[in-house]
UniProtKB/TrEMBL annotation:
Organism in which the protein naturally occurs: Elysia marginata
Family label: Belongs to the PEP-utilizing enzyme family.
Domain PEP-utilising enzyme mobile intervals: 972-1030
UniProt superkingdom: Eukaryota
Positions of the Pyruvate phosphate dikinase AMP/ATP-binding domain: 155-466
InterPro entries: ATP_grasp_subdomain_1, PEP-util_enz_mobile_dom, PEP_Utilizing_Enz, Phosphohistidine_dom_sf, PPDK_AMP/ATP-bd
GO terms of molecular function: ATP binding; kinase activity
Keyword Transmembrane helix on entry: yes
Gene3D superfamilies the UniProt entry points to: ATP-grasp fold, A domain, ATP-grasp fold, B domain, Phosphohistidine domain
Keywords assigned by UniProt, alphabetized: Membrane, Transmembrane, Transmembrane helix
TM ranges: 489-506, 518-539, 1076-1094
Record-given protein name: Phosphoenolpyruvate synthase
């Protein structure tokens, strides 16, 4: 909880005024009233705040009594430049209604001395830039002198040229010089391109290198147009004088591209620099080389990888060279860490090119800055000096160009005096002050004069570590008693629990593993907002927000925040904490108290709770009508069909995301009716929640087993029908079909109109589904039919379409099979309610499908957006878009930020590690990934697991632990599948398996619903099932044995019995050396027997050694 209280008093003029608020941890805000704080009692202490004081206030109908005690020093400063007001701030310990807290107290008053300092103009004006109107008037200039203010516009001359012009404008203020020169503008290059008949271009990355070579060749071989030649000649004479003078001078000719030397991408070393150019003709050739370098392959690829435009204009800097005695680079902040407490100088004798190119080991000098007065040159101190080898240096050659010479006699000495080092550092401070940021300065020294050759922002390498990217999007926690679960959900009842059910389905079934940033910013945000809307309607929130509250993420994994969703207990009728915990966790959670829930989100009392209940009923009514309306709209709903550019399409997506969110909100809320119906039936069977047992859960599973109109179950049945039809076309043609690449199979099926019609009907109804179907990066079956084809082939290969139909039972037969014996009246009530409950389960699946269908519409829009971003050169590849948030994509379109692209590339690399992380299912406060090695050690001696039966039956078969759908090809007919959870992508495997065990799930989760449809014995919510059973499998891999599971409803438990006698070898002492004898001598026999359904539900692992 955060409290802010302020009291204002102007004695003898105004009565004290108060304001303030209380912010609950869930983000709700309540205004404070009735503040009792007497400032008059503190008047004598105005020059120094009191050590302690007390006050009280009221918020949300509750009175808070506060005592405060300061600690530590009390700093004082002024809130205005003329020092007319004084401010004291001090750290303070608070006691609020006997609860301890910490904060800051601020005391503000008029300066008793009046105005102490008169306003003065700023001492250091910033670097001038050309006004927009001036730049517009010079757009058609071919050359601009450094001294021309218009030359400071990078839009006219490129980055390097603009910086040299800015340095020229301020050189007299910083006690340094700039070698004279001028810039060929971007417009001059545009003129030149008009005279080149062919400039190659290609969108094929494999031929990009050849295309760049052709472009460079055409630019360098073409003559410079006469208009540009004339302008160059005129500008050379302006700088140097008569023609015979500039013909003898040495010039530096350097490219100056638009957008280079920025804070995010410097393009350093990507384009051409020619030093020591002598003679007019050589200057023209050097200009052409600079122009051509903008299309050199390394420069084009650099821009492509950083999302910069490929087709750019380039200016050229033509500048007199100076005979440097020493030169190098100065960073006014550490170029690695970014720390501004040190200035780093790299220097060598001669020209600075030896330092910039790295051809020589330079001197490295650190100048220490005063952290309390960074811009005071008088407080600079010489730090460490590392003398480089400096075996060679570069100097100007007499006839042009540059040459290398040895520095053996001087190599052991520092190439700069201490006086010059401090003078250089002082220049760095002055430049930093005027540019407003840390600078990377190229410089040269000639007879104690410093020449500035370049001044650009420091491009600090991204210092984010792997840990930073793993946790980049982690949600903040607002209290230390937050409980978070990965959806270890047993069953869902009541007002709250039906929503948690859908949350489980969305987070665990539709979105297992780590999410991409785009999905976090769309799907996860919408689901979190949806739950907040529900809490708002039942009075548990003042307003829904788009902050991560109910569905926080850690390492891009989604969790359910129990304290947030549990806050409904304090606000709504028919909401019970014990029922919530039993339903959600299978046990009580006494550590999360009612007082904590009230402290977290406040409390509704009396009539307010009834009012909240009525609002909930209205909410459900609106949800039903809203979902029905959207069911009609979605088939024809599109996003940005007319958009031609990435920016246009992004704006359409951005505007229509409100519809995406609306469908998620109301489909989630509409699913509540299935939870309420389940509440009634379970109460009839088991009474109060505290008395529910696995027997009651098993009976509930039995009653739900006859839900026939369930959308999820349609998918495998439809695939079975198509597989059966393909299998009937003939053995030879089927074999050909199975060998055909998945991408070509749709065309192959087109020769069979009946089958093709079935496929088209399937994709029309179910094509929006797929594995991890809420992940924006995953393509649906409709947009990538080859995914569906691979599923169909698997069904054909395994003959899964031959599965027998499940037994249909009447309601009376279901009630007779129940373990819980009910009196006549309850049986009659259940006969009336069961059809409604079955329909409610179908409605839940209908709402989920509706949401996924809308999700697929936006998937397609984002897929198209990614393609446009790549086509327009804003991204190096379309897939990278998924590693930007929705808002970051908009930022990229507006700014072309190279840093965003670099960050996206690093996020993509880290996703695989994020996906591999595992978390405990219940976590107090922040979840931390589990150590897989430690986890294997912990489970080696585990004897018992708990779980919940959801589909009855009895089966014995081999265990098949599968950690992802990609590894599901190992499944064979009759296997008992052990997975974390299932979604629609697992549908084709249900006809194959003999039983199902999942770590997550509930009675109406995907696995439970489809298992009941196929009559497959199924147990869900078996904590650590994959790890423990996998461990058993691993311990048996070095011998020829098979880990076997027995799923049975004969007993109300899941037990591992001793090795059954009928499975032991004949006799008690097989002959040594036989396969059986070798097996018994070298390994363990491991059996895990699951008996599902009723009391004492558990799993025990027993290991049997060799025969005695």
């Amino acid at each position: 909880m955060c409290i802010q209280v302020a009291v204002f008093s102007q004695p003898k003029a105004l009565a004290p005024a108060t304001r303030g608020y209380v912010v609950y941890p869930n983000g709700d805000v309540s205004s404070v009233t009735d503040v009792e704080m007497h400032l008059g009692e503190m008047e004598d202490l105005i020059e120094e705040p009191p050590e302690s004081w007390s006050f009280s206030f009221t918020a949300d109908g509750k009175t808070y009594k506060v005592t405060a005690k300061t600690r530590g020093n009390t700093p004082m400063w002024y809130d205005s430049q003329d020092q007319r007001n004084e401010v004291y701030e001090v750290f303070t310990d608070f006691n609020v209604n006997s609860l301890f807290g910490q904060g800051v107290s601020e005391f503000f008053h008029r300066n008793s001395r009046g105005i102490a300092v008169e306003d003065t103009p700023p001492e250091c004006p910033i670097v001038p830039e050309a006004p927009t109107d001036l730049a517009e008037t010079k757009e058609n200039e071919i050359t601009l002198q450094f001294s021309d203010l218009a030359c400071t516009a990078s839009s006219l001359v490129g980055g390097k040229g603009a910086q040299l012009a800015q340095l020229t404008q301020i050189k007299d203020f910083v006690n340094a010089q700039v070698p004279p020169g001028f810039c060929l503008t971007l417009y001059s290059f545009q003129l030149q391109l008009q005279n080149i008949l062919f400039v190659s271009a290609s969108s094929d990355l494999s031929s990009l290198g050849r295309a760049c070579e052709k472009a460079v060749q055409h630019i360098t071989e073409a003559d410079i147009c006469e208009e540009v030649q004339t302008a160059i000649l005129k500008s050379l004479k302006q700088v140097e004088g008569p023609e015979e003078d500039f013909q003898e001078s040495h010039w530096a000719v350097r490219s100056s591209a638009a957008g280079e030397d920025g804070t995010e991408a410097s393009s350093a070393g990507q384009m051409e620099t020619i030093l020591g150019v002598v003679g007019y003709e050589k200057i023209l050739n050097a200009v052409k080389r600079c122009w051509a370098s903008v299309y050199a392959h390394q420069a084009v690829e650099y821009r492509r990888q950083h999302g910069q435009p490929i087709r750019v204009l380039v200016g050229v800097v033509i500048q007199q060279m100076v005979p440097a005695e020493a030169a190098g680079v100065m960073f006014t902040a550490d170029p690695v860490s970014g720390s501004n407490s040190v200035i780093v100088v790299n220097a060598n004798f001669g020209l600075g090119e030896s330092v910039v190119s790295g051809s020589s080991d330079p001197d490295t000098i650190h100048v220490i800055r005063d952290p309390e007065d960074l811009h005071n040159p008088d407080k600079l101190k010489l730090g460490s000096v590392t003398v480089g080898e400096k075996r060679t240096c570069l100097i100007e050659a007499e006839n042009g160009g540059i040459k290398e010479e040895t520095t053996a006699e001087r190599a052991s000495s520092v190439c700069l005096s201490e006086e010059m080092i401090l003078k250089l550092a002082t220049l760095g401070i002055e430049l930093e002050k005027r540019f407003g940021s840390s600078r990377d300065v190229e410089w040269a020294v000639v007879r104690s004069n410093i020449f500035m050759l370049q001044c650009r922002p420091i491009t600090v390498a991204e210092s984010d570590t792997e840990y930073d990217f793993l946790h980049e999007f982690d949600s903040p926690l607002t209290c230390d008693y937050q409980w978070m679960t990965t959806s270890n959900i047993r069953f869902f009842f009541g007002i709250l629990c039906f929503v948690l059910l859908l949350m489980y389905c969305l987070t665990s079934e539709m979105m297992p593993g780590a999410l991409t940033p785009l999905t976090l910013s769309t799907f996860a945000t919408s689901i979190d907002y949806s739950l907040q809307v529900f809490l708002y309607h039942v009075g548990a929130r003042q307003r829904p927000t788009h902050l991560s509250k109910c569905l926080p993420n850690i390492c891009n994994h989604l969790f359910i925040a129990l304290i947030d969703v549990g806050s409904v207990v304090s606000h709504a009728m028919m909401a019970n904490k014990d029922m919530m915990e039993i339903s959600l966790l299978g046990s009580f959670l006494p550590e999360m108290t009612l007082q904590q829930l009230e402290d977290y989100a406040g409390k509704s009392v009396g009539f307010r709770r009834l009012h909240n209940f009525v609002n909930m009923l209205r909410m459900w009514s609106k949800a039903q009508s809203t979902c029905t309306a959207w069911e009609k709209k979605i088939p024809s709903y599109t996003v940005g069909p007319e958009a031609q550019t990435a920016l246009e399409l992004y704006k359409c997506i951005d505007q229509q995301l409100v519809d995406y969110e609306t469908v998620w909100v109301w489909s989630l809320i509409n699913s509540g009716r299935s939870g309420n119906m389940a509440t009634v039936i379970m109460s009839i069977i088991g009474g109060d929640a505290t008395g529910w047992t696995t027997q009651h859960y098993g009976d509930m599973a039995l009653l739900l087993s006859q839900c026939n109109d369930v959308y999820s179950a349609e998918v495998p049945h439809a695939i079975e029908n198509i597989a059966r039809a393909v299998a009937e076309i003939g053995q030879e043609e089927v074999e050909t079909f199975l060998l055909t690449p998945d991408e070509d199979c749709m065309e192959a099926l087109s020769s069979h109109p009946k089958i093709m019609k079935m496929v088209e009907a399937f994709l029309a109804r179910h094509g929006h589904r797929c594995l991890r179907e809420s992940e924006m990066r995953e393509k649906s079956w409709r947009s990538a039919p080859e995914k569906f084809i691979s599923v169909l082939k698997l069904m054909i290969k395994t003959k899964g379409y031959e599965k027998n139909e499940k037994q249909q039972l009447s309601i009376s037969e279901l009630l007779d099979k129940m373990e819980t014996k009910l009196p006549f009246l309850k049986r009659q009530i259940l006969k009336f309610l069961l059809p409604k409950a079955w329909k409610a389960v179908g409605d839940r699946e209908w709402g989920k499908s509706l949401s996924v269908q809308m999700n697929d519409v936006f998937k397609l829009a984002y897929q198209r957006l990614g393609s446009l971003l790549q086509q327009e050169g804003r991204l190096p590849d379309a897939d990278l878009m998924y590693f930007l948030t929705h808002l970051e994509i908009g930022n990229l379109l507006r700014t072309g930020s190279a840093r965003l692209i670099i960050k996206a590339q690093k996020r993509r690399k880290i996703l695989a590690k994020q996906t591999s992380l595992k978390f405990e299912q219940m976590n107090k406060s922040r979840p931390f990934p589990t150590d897989p090695y430690l986890k294997h050690a912990e489970i080696s001696d585990v004897e018992c697991l708990t779980g919940m039966p959801v589909s009855q039956g009895q089966i014995t078969g081999p265990a098949q632990v599968v950690h992802s759908l990609e590894g599901a090809s190992v499944i064979t007919p009759g296997d008992i599948l052990v997975v974390k959870s299932t979604d629609v992508g697992w549908s084709p495997y249900f006809p194959l398996i003999g039983g199902l065990v999942t770590e997550l799930g509930g009675l109406i989760s995907h696995g439970a619903v489809v298992a009941r449809e196929y009559g497959i014995p199924c147990v869900v919510n078996v904590n650590k099932a994959t790890s423990i059973i996998q461990s058993a499998v691993l311990r048996s891999t070095y011998v020829d044995i098979e880990t076997t599971l027995l799923i049975s409803t004969n007993r109300g438990s899941v037990i591992v019995d001793p090795l059954p006698s009928d499975l032991q070898g004949p006799g008690s002492s097989p002959a040594a050396g036989t396969s059986v004898g070798l097996f018994l001598e070298t390994g363990f026999i491991i059996f895990i027997i699951f008996s599902i359904c009723f009391p004492d539900f558990h799993v025990r692992v027993v290991r049997h050694g060799a025969y005695a």
